[in-house]
Amino acid sequence: xxxxxxxxxxxxxxxxxxxxxxxxxxxxxxxxxxxxxxxxxxxxxxxxxxxxxxxxxxxxxxxxxxxxxxxxxxxxxxxxxxxxxxxxxxxxxxxxxxxxxxxxxxxxxxxxxxxxxxxxx
Length: 121
Description:
A 6-stranded antiparallel sheet has the order 1-6-2-3-4-5, with no helix packed on it. The protein is about 30% helix and about 25% strand. It is extended and about 55 Å long. The chain contains 2 helices and 6 strands. By secondary structure, it is α+β, with helices and mostly antiparallel strands. The chain folds into 2 domains: about 10-50; about 50-110. A hairpin with a 6-residue loop joins strand 2 (about 65-70) and strand 3.
């Protein structure tokens, strides 16, 4: 059951003003397409510096890897299903799967074995 949230006119107006300030700051930082593309390129280059690669180089054997989609701020579990180049990228989340169009991927860090508690015997 959800509880309705009551928002006063003052709270609404403050929220709207904050959104408008954010929009103005973004427009000043990236006033046109060329500026926005420069920022996008810088982010892509930095992610590559951090170990991300173009998604076309991802494993094609069902291995789950990390992926980034354009327009998202998340890092998602993803796999490639099917034969290249006619397969599909699939994002895994909470037991659900959905088609994806990621732009970058990285292999997951290897999971180390739990510390040995003395073994059997």
